[in-house]
Design brief:
This protein is α/β, with parallel strands linked by helices. The chain has two domains: 147 residues, Aspartate Aminotransferase, domain 1; 241 residues, 3-Layer(aba) Sandwich (Aspartate Aminotransferase, domain 2), CATH 3.40.640. The protein has 14 helices and 15 strands. It has a seven-stranded mixed β-sheet with strand order 2-8-7-6-5-3-4, with helices on both faces. Strand 11 and strand 12 form a beta hairpin. The protein is globular and about 60 Å long. The structure holds pyridoxal-5'-phosphate (PLP). The site of pyridoxal-5'-phosphate has 13 residues, from helix 5.
Length: 398
């Protein structure tokens, strides 16, 4: 019955892990999930109220496929404020979450066999999205030696006559590491030599930064010449705690944006009218809430890092942004837990979940073995308890 595409499709490993954790919790176990990719606090009050107002007002019909004009205008203003980039509302399309917008982007970019360069560790969905668009993912391993970032040399080496696009997130999921302006400029110089390549800049975590800058540097700030072939993807899910509202968007060259909007018109008609109103208020009015939330995240990060780095055999560097700690567990691999030798990050995560009731995502799911992704968008006491359990597990290794 199923198509070849259906047979080769893999479900999202992070969502699978969430389901498994729920199953173990349903058996009466106190499971702590460090695997979630969303804030643990609710949507900011005024954004939620805007959604309620939209319902009360009867703002509940289809909108245009590319989204309501006020929201597209607000998105342009935000990008102008953040990066000094000029876009008009006709160069924006709003969709049902950044995930679907990225999915539609690859559908509109790739012909069969077109190559898309993806630095690893990568967000789990990129390769699947590319393959569902009949493209070919070209995974470039970027390990600790390059701080898990692609370098101009690695990029240049990966480019072939079939390269269609390059996709990356900064800050990155799973590492939380962001590219500096100089690093982006160096990558931009490579792209300048290859005018066919489209750059997909996934900015979903760009407002969740813990250092001196409040917004992550952008490749178009350092290489504005790439604007005509760069697509910026972002949304309200992470920074405004609105994952369930499902609003994301893309800004880019008019022809590509129109194609994505047309694709959306056939696939989903439009994003939720109610959510669009809530997203509009979030962008316009919730930056002070976001700043407060970032402070809280930063405090949690410092506390978590201290504990993680006091546990033998594991270590983690401070991320620049997002809400993930990328924990190096490579020294635990090859050790024995009871009668089992830990041979992969998947083994590590399975024991941690099944015996210690802590869910975290194994690095291998992001294309990088020897690591574990921990989300610290988790209440401090629960985090402390989870890390204590992890310590108990690790001290049992022989
Ligand atoms: C790197 C990255 N991009 C995009 C998304 C999608 O976000 P959403 O569809 O909720 O807007 C996520 C969510 O986990 C992500 O981690």
């Amino acid at each position: 019955m199923l198509s070849r595409r259906a047979q080769s499709m893999k479900p999202s490993p992070t969502l699978q892990l969430v389901a498994k954790a729920k199953e173990i919790a349903a058996q009466g176990n106190d499971v702590i999930s460090l695997s979630v990719g969303e804030p643990d606090w609710p949507t900011f009050e005024i954004a939620a109220q805007a959604g309620i107002e939209a319902i009360k007002e009867g703002f509940s019909k289809y909108t245009s496929a590319n989204g309501i004009p006020e929201l597209r205008e607000a998105i342009c203003e935000q990008v102008k404020k953040d990066h000094g980039l000029d876009y008009s509302p006709s160069q924006v399309t709003v969709g049902t979450g950044a995930k679907f917008v990225l999915f539609a982007t690859f559908q509109m970019l790739c012909d069969e066999g077109d190559e898309v360069i993806i630095p690893a560790p990568y967000w789990v969905s990129y390769p699947v999205m590319v393959e569902l668009a009949q493209g070919k993912s070209v995974i470039i391993e970027c390990g600790p030696a390059t701080h898990f970032k692609i370098t101009p040399e690695l990029l240049e080496k990966a480019i072939t006559p079939k390269t269609k696009a390059f996709v990356f997130a900064s800050p990155n999921n799973p590492t939380g590491i962001a590219y500096t302006s100089d690093e982006l400029k160096a990558l931009g110089d490579v792209f300048k030599k290859h005018p066919r390549i489209v750059i997909v800049a996934d900015d979903i975590y760009n407002h969740l930064m813990f250092g001196a800058c409040t917004v992550a540097p952008h490749i178009l700030e350092s290489t504005p010449e790439l604007k005509e072939r760069t697509i910026i993807v972002n949304g309200v899910s992470k920074s405004y705690a609105m994952t369930g509202w499902r609003i994301g968007w893309a800004l880019g060259p008019t022809a590509l944006i129109k194609a994505i909007a047309d694709y959306q018109s056939q696939a989903t008609s439009s994003a939720s009218s109610i959510s669009q109103r809530a997203a509009l208020t979030a962008i316009k009015k919730c930056d002070p809430d976001m700043v407060k939330a970032n402070h809280l995240l930063k405090e949690r990060l410092e506390a978590s890092l201290k504990i993680i780095n006091s546990i033998p055999l594991i270590k983690a560097a401070k991320p620049d942004g997002a809400f993930y700690v990328w924990v190096d567990i490579s020294q635990t691999l090859g050790k024995k837990y009871e009668n089992q030798i830990l041979s992969s990050s998947r083994d590590f995560a399975t024991i941690l979940l099944e015996k210690y009731f802590v869910a975290a995502v194994p690095g291998i799911e992001f294309g990088c073995e020897g690591f574990l992704r921990i989300s610290f968008a988790v209440e401090s006491e629960r985090m402390l308890e989870a890390l204590n359990r992890m310590k108990k597990f690790i001290t049992k290794l022989q």
